[in-house]
Amino acid sequence: MKNQVAIITGGSEGIGLSIASALATQGTHVYLVSRTLEKLEKAKEKILQQGGKADIKSADITNIDAMKDVIESVYKTHGRLDIFINNAGTWQGNSLDTPFADIWKLIELDMKAPYEIAHYLAGRFKEEKNNDLRILTIVSQAALQVLGNSLGYGVAKMGLAAGLFHIEKELQKEGIQNVKLYRLYPNTVATEKMMDAVRANQVKDAVSPETVADTAIDLLSDTTPTRDARIGYYIDKGIVRSYYPSTPQDFYHPAEIIEDVIDPDFTIQDLLK
Ligand SMILES: NC(=O)c1ccc[n+]([C@@H]2O[C@H](COP(=O)([O-])OP(=O)(O)OC[C@H]3O[C@@H](n4cnc5c(N)ncnc54)[C@H](OP(=O)(O)O)[C@@H]3O)[C@@H](O)[C@H]2O)c1
């Protein structure tokens, strides 16, 4: 990761900041993108204090023209873009009583925006044969199973995974080697926003954002069995990574899901230390 250049959407907090921080520690120059400048400044300061290289760009991922400007300005500055962490998004519970306009708005944020960005990047960089680009999208366990209260979020994340596999298929058809897609499907993650619920014992099955970041780094380093990893804590097993097939042909009909128990001794109390 040394001397590489990365853009991280939602890099000002939560999972995005943890991945940005892990990349910066390895020598990657990270560009943090989100809407709120104050949070971006704070996150940048944190990475600089760790000895990393960080810059910030304020943009809304639902505005594709603004995102294209961010991508092109970083590419122009460095003459390269190595990693794009397609992470920004949010959770919101919906029921049959939720106005459909609210559900659709969530789908625009959690599905349309990251899909449109990945579509743009794949089309834009497939001709840049000297630029290897890895696009890692933070999807969710909600793409792998039907959860409750998820009429917006679950549909968005399933649609997002499907969209990414359709892009994968086109890259495969065209024999494109320099753009690679990676997908990470976390179960519950104890981000700052989640910690009150963890302390109150309302959330019992979360992993730390750093655990998610470790998985992201391993995926991007191509040291994992596939480019599709689920990460989560299971009370009876500990922290487990499950690797799903990475081809559009096999993802929806996996012959095998490879399980790797990475910390059998973890307990939720470890998050409170
Ligand atoms: N936490 C979990 O348990 C969990 C589990 C599975 C998957 N995920 C997925 O992981 C990703 C990150 O989640 P998180 O829990 O780390 O979120 P978080 O702590 O709420 O952070 C979200 C980040 O995204 C930014 N953001 C939100 N809307 C944006 C927009 N329209 N344009 C640009 N930036 C935007 C936020 O900054 P601003 O608000 O300032 O823009 C912030 O930097 C999401 O895609 C989420 O679905 C989370």
Percent of residues in β-strands: 15-25%
Main beta-sheet annotation: 9 strands, mixed
Overall form: globular
Annotation field: number of helices: 8
Order of helices and strands: EHEHEHEHEHEHHEEHE
Small molecules in complex: NADP nicotinamide-adenine-dinucleotide phosphate
Count the strands?
9
Q: Low-confidence parts lasting 5 or more residues at pLDDT below 50?
A: none
- Structural class based on helices, strands and sheet pairing: alpha/beta
Measured as a percent range, the helix fraction is 25-40%
State the distance separating the first and last CA atoms: 30 Å
Mean pLDDT: 97
Widest beta sheet: strand line-up: 3-2-1-4-5-6-7-8-9
Report Rg. 18 Å
Give your account of this protein's structure.
This protein is an alpha/beta fold. The protein has a domain at 188-273. Helix content is 40%, strand content 20%. The chain has a nine-stranded mixed β-sheet, with helices on both faces. The protein is globular. It starts with a strand and ends in a 10-residue tail after the last strand. The structure holds NADP nicotinamide-adenine-dinucleotide phosphate. Residues 9-10, 12-16, 34-36, 39, 60-62, 87-91, 109, 138, 140, 186, 188-189, 191, 193 line the site of NADP nicotinamide-adenine-dinucleotide phosphate (NAP). NADP nicotinamide-adenine-dinucleotide phosphate is lined by residues 9-10, 12-16, 34-36, 39, 60-62, 87-91, 109, 138, 140, 186, 188-189, 191, 193.
